[in-house]
Amino acid sequence: MAESESFEKLRPRMFAIAYRMLGSVSDAEDIVQEAFLRYQGALRGGTEIGSLRAYLSAVVTRLSIDHQRSARVRREDYFGVWLPEPLLTDTGDNDPTVVAEEADSLSMAFLLLLERLGPVERAAFLLHDVFGYGYDEIARIVGKGEANCRQIVARARARIQADRPRYEATPEQRERLAAHFFAAITSGDLDGLVQLLAEDAIIYGDGGGKAPQLSKPVVGAMQLARLLTGWGRQMRQLGLRFLRRRVNGQPGAVLVDQDGLYLGVFALEIDQGVVRTVRSVINPDKLRHLGPVADAWALQRRLTGKQQKREI
């Protein structure tokens, strides 16, 4: 029982490492569970474990590196735009200060920047710059020299730093803007939406070929506003609604049907008082960890039927 209790205390940190490595909630949970099984096996085999934190960090990171290598190959065949699995970060009893400090490294924008890095490079950078591990410990984990790890982290930091999102507005200001944004979609306020969007605003949609999705990103305030107000009209026809949530540490919302089943998750990137990027995840496989998922194709057929009746 004692080892299980110790593991549970470290589980949030291990999940945090695996999720940032993989961008997948389900895969990160599997990695953490596998690490626990290996830990139990090591104990049964009589292995002495000096530091449980060091042991688990090494196992989780190495498993994540191996998984990331295969995931990069699979994503070459992914249908459409790939986005990380959304993580709702306004749940639980987390210290708000800690959550705020970690929010930037959880954002979808940051996770997508990490995709530029190779698996070992990504691991070393995250362990040092996000989680505060020393170079000596990182060297043991990834199996490279300490000096080499310093170089790897420095190169990774240089590749990430220039494009890393910077959030000048306070969380409260971003939340207020997000509230206006989703309200404007729901009410069909085209002019209001245009004012909330950057001129070069863009939306990415990830359906994975398993739900109705955008054929390509839509760019431009007016184009995006027209698209979103069109979605708002469809939402009203089908009885869908937004529930405001924090997604990956940033303002967002979940889209649910009349029964509360999940249809999608929207994450906003807000910069200089306007919405610059909208990321929409509607791939049902990426929503199942949140709860029961609605049948998006059935809703589309229902909407088409309504439109055909009006035409008749």
From TrEMBL:
Residues 7-72 form the RNA polymerase sigma-70 region domain. It comes from Chelativorans salis. This is RNA polymerase sigma-70 factor. InterPro entries: ECF_Sigma-70_Domain (IPR052704), NTF2-like_dom_sf (IPR032710), RNA_pol_sigma-70_dom (IPR014284), RNA_pol_sigma-70_ECF (IPR014303), RNA_pol_sigma70_r2 (IPR007627), RNA_pol_sigma70_r4_t2 (IPR013249), RNA_pol_sigma_r2 (IPR013325), RNA_pol_sigma_r3/r4-like (IPR013324). Pfam families: Sigma70_r2 (PF04542), Sigma70_r4_2 (PF08281). The lineage of its organism: Bacteria, Pseudomonadati, Pseudomonadota, Alphaproteobacteria, Hyphomicrobiales. It comes from the Bacteria. Interacts transiently with the RNA polymerase catalytic core formed by RpoA, RpoB, RpoC and RpoZ (2 alpha, 1 beta, 1 beta' and 1 omega subunit) to form the RNA polymerase holoenzyme that can initiate transcription. SUPFAM superfamilies: NTF2-like (SSF54427), Sigma2 domain of RNA polymerase sigma factors (SSF88946), Sigma3 and sigma4 domains of RNA polymerase sigma factors (SSF88659). Residues 108-160 form the RNA polymerase sigma factor 70 region 4 type domain.
